[in-house]
Amino acid sequence: MNTSVHNLSQQESILNSFMAEIRDKNIQSDRLRFRRNMERAGEIIAYEISKTLDYISRPITTPLGISNCQVLEEQPVLATILRAGLVMHQGFLNVFDSAYRLHHGDSDSFEVKVEYLASPEIDGKTVILCDPMLATGSSMVLAYKALLKRGLPKHIHIATVIASEAGINFVQENLPDNITIWAAAIDSELTPRAYIVPGLGDAGDLAYGEKV
């Protein structure tokens, strides 16, 4: 398995402070703060991914002259698994200004639907696929297969706030090698009901309230 995995919790950065608040059951009751921290986590992961993308030099006219600036050669395609992924999606939108949405429900049995805000070709593109919780990995594999209906991406970055080791292993075993996994944290345990331990609970419910 050649899939690259980046565990950002192994770096000393402000992301770890945001993650502490995201996990803290006493702070989680403040939904606004929870959503903002999830958005911040998305922004930081997006920034880390941006370091691996391709750039070109472009002359930019300032009021006093010309500055040669390094800019993205091509915007990535941003796909997000809803509903919990909405907040993380906003964090990525704050960094990347070209986005697509790929979404499905919260249950284990669902139909994957693809909705595009604007639709360039995905063949040969770099795709960032976001889901705040990578538990079993099955939803991520289904999302990847749905993307293939629109073409074959050049590379896929999977971005998650918390992943389980089992979920990462499942993704590595069931997806091709042109994939990089980015996680703000990786936890070792997964319950029979597919909850990550210590995890944070249900990200969608914490962000938007319990499902009715």
- Helix percentage range: 25-40%
Mean pLDDT across residues: 86
Shape: globular
Rg (C-alpha, Å)? 17 Å
Distance between the termini: 41 Å
Structural class: alpha/beta
Task: Name the beta content range.
Answer: 25-35%
Supply the key terms.
31% helix; two-stranded antiparallel ribbon; alpha/beta; Rossmann fold; six-stranded parallel β-sheet; globular; single chain; 212 residues
Structure in a nutshell:
The protein is an alpha/beta fold. It has helices at residues 15-23, 31-50, 85-95, 138-147, 165-174, 203-208; strands at 4-7, 55-62, 65-72, 77-80, 101-103, 113-115, 126-130, 133-134, 155-164, 179-187, 189-190, 196-197.
Can you describe this structure?
- This protein has 212 residues and is α/β, with parallel strands linked by helices.
- The protein has 6 helices and 12 strands.
- The chain has helices at 15-23, 31-50, 85-95, 138-147, 165-174, 203-208; strands spanning 4-7, 55-62, 65-72, 77-80, 101-103, 113-115, 126-130, 133-134, 155-164, 179-187, 189-190, 196-197.
- Strands 1, 4, 7, 8, 9 and 10 form a 6-stranded parallel beta sheet that branches.
- Helix 1 runs antiparallel to helix 2 (31-50) and helix 2 crosses helix 3 (85-95).
- The longest helix has 20 residues, at 31-50.
- The N and C termini lie far apart (41 Å).
Topology overview:
Blueprint: E1 4-7, H1 15-23, H2 31-50, E2 55-62, E3 65-72, E4 77-80, H3 85-95, E5 101-103, E6 113-115, E7 126-130, E8 133-134, H4 138-147, E9 155-164, H5 165-174, E10 179-187, E11 189-190, E12 196-197, H6 203-208
Parallel strand pairs: 1-10, 4-7, 7-9, 8-9, 9-10
Antiparallel strand pairs: 2-3, 5-6, 11-12
Helix pairs in contact: 1-2, 2-3
